[in-house]
Design a protein that fits this description.
The complex is a heterodimer of chains A (about 300) and B (about 450). Chain A is mainly α and about 300 residues long. Chain A has two domains: about 1-55; about 80-310, MetI-like fold. Chain A contains 13 helices and two strands. In chain A, strand 1 (about 55-60) and strand 2 form a beta hairpin. By secondary structure, chain B is α/β, with parallel strands linked by helices. Chain B folds into two domains: about 40-160 and about 325-395, D-Maltodextrin-Binding Protein, domain 2; about 160-325 and about 405-445, Periplasmic binding protein-like II (D-Maltodextrin-Binding Protein, domain 2). In chain B, the strands form three sheets. Chain B has a five-stranded mixed sheet with strand order 2-1-3-12-6. In chain B, strands 7, 8, 9, 10 and 11 form a five-stranded mixed sheet that branches. Classes of the chains: A mainly alpha (about 300), B alpha/beta (about 450). The interface of A and B includes residues 59, 79, 145 and 272 of A.
Chain lengths: ~300, ~450
């Protein structure tokens, strides 16, 4: 009798192990193709970049030929152009992101009320996002040209200008921020609109009954409820903005001087124009680490905000 | 015995003839295999700048196939900024796609150092036509595809940085039209007069000059040419920076001073903006690549000017000579090509005396050969261009007016572009820009 119970237990354990194994295999059989693709297209290039950043790249075979330790990193960190580009990127992010967030959520709040033609306006907002960035940069370059551009023509009609938008170092960065804001604010608007539509109506109705005005409803209800969405949108835009270089490439080529030479343009030039792939890989790794750390800090901050709420 | 001997001799003769015939057929077959046949063509692929790849595919390949019907040519156009990297990535692979690489002036050393190019005078000698005249090339354009004593390419599209001038604007300003004897001092003195109100409405509507001013790798070529005209060089024989001196400072300052006579917003101008301003009759002079002459003075679809209104000549004279700056597109054969003979046949034909004349007369492409430049072109507008080119080649050769010849040339040029742009935009003074460029370039060159 005891033997039979033990046998049953053993059989039960075996069948449980078998079931677990079957479960494990079936899960991995579904996950494996995706994992392989993910490894091939994401992990492998990152590790290859990392390998090149610690090596001398043999252009004849296009492979890492010799381990050079931290040499490439040391060269990059001593290059004042790298630090200038980091600084330029910082200035761009400091201005572009807050402007886009405030404008995006502000416009979304303003157009949130139901009115005729709202859907058409929302659809029109998508246009700048789908215009290729290089085209956007080129078109804006034409609009802002001091000699032939529409902008200076209009300003000239009211006695202003001509303004050299792209040739003056401080104005050139402002111009890049304007172009980038034109391009990406609609993205923020779309997310903000969706977020606003999902807000519970009963809270606002209760506020109306309590006699809350427009500002109180915005400041005390809408903003706190939107905070997680605002934070998430900020992180998504931050990750996109850190990679920006195409608009600069088309509009200013990083100039005048190095006034708009954002870090990604600098890395691109060093890699594909001057073929300094090893140093460029080191720069890319540095930027990757900084971006990861800052993104981690933002996500930590978002969680804290949510906890506070 | 005699019969046997006779039969034996006949058999021997027949056998010999048979061998000779089969040998000839074999040679012919081998020849056909190298260059293909209409029924069984060999395919060669070329990577080239997209600016002219389409034109070549449509017109040049059709003409080439009249001579070599068995060679199928496919040309892939790539935008200029990515062309070197893509050419290099492909050429260094185990099985490269491209048999022919079309390289800009400073790229041959980089490709040669990577060990991917065929030595045309040695490895391709067996396929070189006996009548192919190497000595007929002007020295300067041919030297663009030479590296460490080895000829890796041939000039296919030759170009020089030259001075364009609008004769009407000179006449309106009452300034004598430029001649090849015009000095930089005279030119700068005339600049102010060339900024003018041409229609009397009280607004300035024509300016003195437009050229490269923005952060472009070709922008430094303007002051490099001024430096060369004054007897200076960018790098010395040990590849150390040699421009941080009075000659260099004067050259860069002259380039910056040109902005005084440039249109509003000129500091962000380069190739496209300069061309637009000149072609719309808004600037009196333009320092630009000669190859734009047709679109600037001849083709009504792209310009408001006519051939009578546009002059072309070498850039003004410095203390040593007039100036020009070399920009040659050379054709080179990948040494891993499966059809090197066919690839060399295309380059050989296009750079031959016959091919060059066709190329220049039909497509308006500038030649490199002395014989072509001495000939009378079919298109009249080419006559003053040929004269300017021949003079320019000689200046370039004497004054070594080209970008640094080194595998790190592009890195050097990028540093020069950065520092030139900083100086032009007033972010740094001339002395500071040159000192900074000197330090960075010496570091890049390992000095």
């Amino acid at each position: 009798m005891a033997i039979t119970a033990m046998d049953n237990q053993t059989t039960h354990r075996r069948s449980r192990t078998r079931a677990r194994l079957a479960d494990f295999s079936s899960r991995w059989s579904f996950m494996l193709p995706a994992a392989i693709i993910l490894f091939a297209v994401l992990v492998y290039p990152i590790f290859y970049t990392l390998q090149i950043s610690f090596s001398r790249l043999d252009l004849a075979s296009f492979t890492a030929s010799q381990w050079v330790g931290w040499d490439n990193y040391s060269t990059v960190l001593r290059d004042d152009r790298f630090w200038q580009s980091m600084q330029v990127t910082g200035i761009y992010l400091l201005f572009a992101l807050p402007i886009q967030m405030v404008l995006g959520f502000g416009i979304a709040y303003l157009i949130n009320a139901p009115w005729k033609g709202r859907d058409v306006v929302r659809a029109l907002f998508i246009i700048p996002m789908v215009v290729a960035p290089v085209v956007a940069g080129g078109v804006w370059r034409m609009i802002l040209d001091p000699l032939w551009g529409l902008m200076n023509y209009w300003l000239g009609q009211i006695g202003i200008g001509p303004i050299d938008w792209l040739g003056t170092p401080s104005l050139a960065m402002a111009t890049i921020v304007i172009i980038d804001t034109w391009r990406w604010t609609p993205f923020v608007i779309l997310i903000a609109t969706a977020a606003l539509l999902s807000l519970p109506k009963d809270v606002f109705e209760a506020a109306d009954i309590d006699g809350a005005n427009w500002w109180t409803k915005l400041w005390s209800i809408a903003l706190p409820l939107l905070l997680p969405i605002i934070a998430a949108t900020f992180v998504v835009r931050w990750l996109g903005a850190v990679k920006m270089f195409d608009i600069v490439l088309a509009a200013t080529l990083g100039g005048p001087g190095g006034a708009t030479n954002v870090i990604n343009l600098f890395i691109y030039e060093q890699a594909f124009r001057t073929l300094r792939f090893a140093e460029s890989s080191a720069m890319a790794v540095i930027v990757l680490v900084i971006t990861m750390v800052l993104t981690g800090a933002f996500l930590f901050g978002i969680r804290k905000l949510e906890d506070v709420q | 015995m005699t019969v046997c001997t006779v039969i034996g001799r006949r058999a021997l003769l027949a056998a010999s003839l048979g061998l000779m015939v089969s040998g000839s057929v074999g040679a012919v077959l081998a020849q056909d295999n190298l260059y293909g046949t209409a029924e069984a063509p060999v395919e060669i692929r070329m990577i080239a700048n997209e600016a002219f790849a389409g034109q070549w595919q449509d017109a040049m390949v059709t003409e080439f196939n009249k001579h070599y019907p068995g060679i199928k040519v496919v040309i892939d156009g790539v935008p200029y900024p990515e062309l070197l990297a893509k050419s290099m990535l492909d050429a260094t692979g185990p099985e490269p796609t491209y048999d022919i690489i079309i390289a800009d002036d400073p790229w041959i050393p980089q490709l040669a150092e990577a060990g991917v190019l065929l030595d045309l005078k040695k490895d391709a000698a067996q396929w070189t036509d006996a009548g192919y005249d190497w000595d007929d090339f002007n020295a300067a354009p041919l030297a663009a595809s030479e590296w460490n004593g080895v000829q890796y390419g041939v000039p296919l599209r030759s170009n020089l940085l030259l001075m364009f001038y609008n004769k009407s604007l000179y006449d309106k300003a009452g300034v004598p039209q430029p001649t090849p004897e015009l000095t930089w001092t005279d030119y700068m003195a005339q600049g102010e007069k060339l900024v003018q109100d041409t229609n009397g409405d009280g607004q300035i509507d024509a300016w003195g000059v437009d050229t490269y001013f923005n952060r472009d790798v070709l922008t430094p070529t303007i002051w490099q040419t001024i430096l060369n005209s004054n007897g200076g060089q960018l790098l010395d024989e040990n590849n150390k920076a040699a421009f941080n001196n009075d000659l260099g400072k004067a050259a860069l300052q002259t380039h910056i001073d040109l902005l005084k006579f440039a249109p509003t917003g000129g500091s962000s101008h380069s190739f496209n903006e300069s061309l637009q301003a000149f072609r719309q009759g808004q600037v009196a002079t333009m320092f630009m690549w000669g190859s734009v002459f047709k679109g600037t003075a001849v083709d009504p679809k792209t310009t408001t000017l006519t051939t009578d209104q546009v002059g072309i000549q070498v850039m003004p004279v410095g203390s040593e000579s007039a100036g020009a700056h070399r920009g040659i597109w050379s054709g080179a054969v990948n040494n891993k090509s499966r059809n090197p003979a066919a690839a060399w046949a295309l380059l050989q034909w296009l750079s031959s005396k016959e091919g060059e004349v066709w190329h220049s007369n039909t497509l308006g492409v500038f030649p490199a050969r002395k014989s072509t430049l001495a000939s009378t072109p079919e298109q009249e507008w080419l006559t003053p261009v040929f004269a300017a080119l021949q003079m320019g080649y000689e200046m370039v050769d004497t004054g070594h007016m080209w970008r640094p010849r080194d595998p790190k040339s592009d890195a050097v040029q990028q540093v020069l572009a950065d520092e030139t742009s900083r100086a032009i935009s007033g972010q740094i003074d001339v002395a500071g820009a040159l000192a900074s460029a000197e330090q960075k370039i010496n570091e890049i060159m390992g000095n």
